[in-house]
Amino acid sequence: MIHVRGALAIGETSRFLIEVNSNIDGPVFVRLRNRTKATRRATYLLGPFVLYCDSRPVIPANQNEYVPQFKANIEPQGKFTFQLKPEDARDVGGKRCWIIDVVSEVLFNQITKVDYELLISLDINNFKKSKYQQDIYESIEGDVVAKQYSNHDIQEFIEVGAKIKKSQTKERNQHLVIVTHGMISNVSNDMMYIMEQLRAIDRDDLDEELILDGYTGNVCRTELGIKNLGIRLANYIVKERYNTNIKKISFIGHSLGGLVQTFAIAYIYILHGWFFDAVKPVNFISLATPFLGLYSHIGNYTKRLLSSGALGQTGEDLRYHSHNKLKNFSILYLLSGDPAHSILQKFERRTLYANAINDGIVPLASSALLYLDYSKILKDSKLLKKETDDIRSIVMTWKEFQDSEDFKVYKKVNPKSKIFRRVSLTNTVGNLVLPEPPKNITSDMKVLIHDQVYQYNDIPDSEYFPPDGIDEIMAMDRHQLQECMARRWHAGKSWRKVIVCLEGDAHNSINVRRRYSNSCGWAVISHMILNHFIKPQKCDVPEADIVSQPASRDEADMEPNKTYAWLLKEDKEKGGLIRRATNALNPIARRL
Predict the structure, then answer these.
(1) For residue 41, with 0-12 CB atoms within 10 Å meaning exposed, 13-18 middle and 19 or more buried, which class applies?
(2) What is the CATH number of the domain that holds 373?
(3) Which of 20-29, 65-74, 305-314, 416-425 has the lowest mean pLDDT?
(4) Same-domain pairing of 124 and 272
(5) Does 557 reside within a domain?
(6) Is 150 a domain residue?
(7) How many H-runs (helices) and E-runs (strands) does the chain carry?
(8) CA-to-CA distance for 295 and 292, rounded, in angstroms?
(9) Does residue 477 have a pLDDT over 80?
(10) What one-character DSSP code corresponds to residue 546?
C-alpha cells in the first residue's frame, strides 16, 4: 500500500500522478483523509481547515462516458474514498495514468496548514488498519506508482515536452499573461484551471511563447483596497517579472482582480512610461468584475458591513466611498477616466465576461458596464427554458425598472425570484468552501447567450454626460454616477461583451475556481482562450475616438504633478474586520 502524508497551506495543491500497469484488471482504491483535529472546525478564521479533491484519467478511454470523481468539502477528520477503474483510462505503453489533485481551501490565514493522508491500495480492506508503523511512499510491487508534484512542479508537469520548450524560449518572443485573483482568493489554486488550459495550447497554434504568471503577494490582503493591491501588482510586473524577451502582455482578472489590474496598468503607464513602449498590450480580459461597484445590489445587512469597514478599504472602494480626499472622487470613478482610459485604448482587445444570472455577488449591470442590447439578449435567451424568466427580469431597463412601481409589484408576486439576488458576507465566503454541486458535469445547456462588440456610438445619449464640472458630478445620485462611469469606460474604446448563463454559483464558476465543482464555467474559459490566444480577433476603434497619450514621467518628476496624485501617493494600509481578527489569531495559529 502507498501511504502519503502532507500538509497544505493557503494556495497550495498536491498533485499525484498515478501510473498503473495494464495487467491490473481490477480497480485501484484511493482514500484521502483530512487529518486535522475535528475541534478546529470551529476556528473558521484560522482556516477553514477544508480540502478539495478530484481524480481524472490523463487520457480518458471515452471522454463522453467518463464520470469524474470529486469531493468539494472534506472537513477535519472527513474522508473521501474512490476508485481508479481500468475501463476509464486508455492504455498507453502498457500503463494507465490518473491525476489526483488535493487542494487546500484555506482562505484567511497564511500560517495554518491542513494535514492530509492519502492511501492507495489494490485491496480496500487495507484501509481498515488504524495505524501505520511508518510512512510508506513507494510503488505497490511495481504495478502502481505514485509521483507527487507541488504547485511549483505542476507547470512543468502539464507542459508536454517541457525541456524542449525551455530550450526554445530564447528563439521566440515571449507573451506574458498576468492572471489576477479576486476577493478572499489566490492565484495558484483559484486561477489554476485557466492557467492549465492556457499551457495546454498546442505550440503549433502560436508564434510566441506564453509565459503565465500571477502575483501571490496579495493573498490574505484583498481587504487593503484597490489602490494598495494594484501598486503591489504593478511593482511585481515591472521590477520582478519584466525581461527584455517579453514583447507582449495580457491581463486576465476575476472579480476584484479586474479592478486591481486596471489600477496596475494605469500606475505602470504613468510611473514607468517606457514599459508599454517596450511591451505591447494585447488582451484586457475581465471575468465578473464590478466596474460600477456593488452598493446598489446588496442587502442592507451587507451595506452596513461595508460601511463599518468589515471588508476594509476594498469594501469602501466598492460602495463608492470617497477615496480621493482632495476632490472627493471615488476610486471607481477615477479608474474610468485617465490614465487608465488612455492605456486601455492601446490594448488590441478589451473583453468582459458577465453573468446574466446566479451571480449573488456582482450584478450584470456592473460587470457588463451597464449598456447592452437587451432586446437581443432576450431574444437569444429564448433558447433557455428554465432560466428565461430570470434573464428577462435582470435585463429589464436599468434605472426605470428599479424605480418603477412594477418592480415593487413584481417582488410581491415573485418573492423567490433571483432578480438582483442579495448577498451577505456569509454567502460570499460560504460559496467558496461549500459550493453548490453541479447538476450535470456534461450539461449541454447554452452557456454563451450574448457575444457582441460595443462601440461608444452604440450607447444612447444621456442628459448626465458629459458633466459640466465637479459640482455637477458631486450632485449626481448613485444611479446617475453609475451611468456616468459606464460612459467614461466606453469613451473612445470598443468592448467585447460576452454574457453567460451558468448554473449554481456563477461567480466562482465563471473562472472555474475548482475543476469539477465549478465545471459549468468550462465553456467560458474555452471561449476566452480560443478568441484571444488561438484565433484572436482584433477590435478596431475609429481613430477619431482615440485620445492622445499623456506624457510619461520619470519617478523623480512625479511629485510636483498633482494630476495623478490619487494614483501615485501611497496610502496607509486599512485592513478590515476579517484581517484584524486573523492577525489577532496568528499567535494561536503558530502553535497549532
Answers:
(1) middle
(2) 3.40.50.1820
(3) 416-425
(4) no
(5) no
(6) no
(7) 23, 18
(8) 9
(9) no
(10) P
Q: What type of residue is 322?
A: S
Confidence of residue 254 (pLDDT cuts 50, 70, 90): very high
- 38 alpha carbon, distance to own chain's centre: 30
Contact 283, 344 (CB under 8 A): no
Please give the tally of structural domains in the chain.
2
- Exposed, middle or buried: residue 152 (CB in 10 Å: 0-12, 13-18, 19+)? exposed
Find out whether 511 and 521 touch, Cβ atoms under 8 Å: yes
CA angle at 272 for the pair 268 and 276, rounded to the nearest 5°: 70
Calculate the CA 166 to chain-centre distance. 28
Instruction: Say if 469 falls within a structural domain.
Output: yes
Which are the contacts of 98, defined by CB distance < 8 A and separation ≥ 6? 17, 18, 20, 55, 56, 57, 58, 84, 89
- For residue 103, the cross-strand partners are 13, 52
**What separation in angstroms does the CA of 134 have from each of 1, 67, 286?**
12, 34, 48
- Alpha-carbon torsion angle 434, 440, 442, 446, nearest 10: -100
- What grid cell was written down for 353? 465576461
Dihedral sign of CA atoms 419, 424, 425, 428 in order = negative
Three-class DSSP category at 244: coil
CA dist 576 and 499 (Å) reads 32
The verdict on 335 and 256 lying in the same domain is yes
The residue count of the chain comes to 592
In the block, residue with C-alpha cell 408576486: 413
Instruction: Name the domain boundary from 534, 556, 578.
Output: 534
Q: For 97-122, what is the mean pLDDT? A: 93
Could you tell me the pTM of the whole model?
Answer: 0.84
Residue 533 clears pLDDT 60, i.e. is over it: yes
Distance CA 544, CA 526 (A): 34
In the numeric block, which cell numbers belong to residue 266? 494605469
Active site amino acids: 255
Count CA atoms closer than 13 A to 153's CA, side-chain side.
Answer: 10
Is 86 in the same domain as 197?
Answer: no
Instruction: Look up the CATH number of the domain holding residue 86.
Output: 2.60.120.680
At position 113, the amino acid (one-letter code) is K
Does residue 309 share a domain with residue 346?
A: yes
SS3 551: coil
In this structure, the answer to whether residues 330 and 454 fall within a common structural domain is: yes
The answer to whether residues 247 and 280 touch, using CB atoms and an 8 Å cutoff, is yes
User: In 284-424, which ranges are continuous DSSP H helix?
Assistant: 300-308, 312-318, 331-335, 340-345, 364-367, 374-380, 388-394, 398-403, 405-413
Write down which residue in 518, 534, 550 finishes a domain.
534
Q: Are residues 99 and 206 in the same domain?
A: no
Answer yes or no: is 315 within a domain: yes
Q: Which of 564, 580, 581, 576 is nearest to 321 (CA)?
A: 576
Q: Are residues 456 and 508 in the same domain?
A: yes
Q: Which domain holds residue 102?
A: 2-134
Do both 216 and 362 map to the same domain?
yes
Give the C-alpha separation, 499 to 512, whole Å. 16
**CB 299 within 8 Å of CB 264:** no
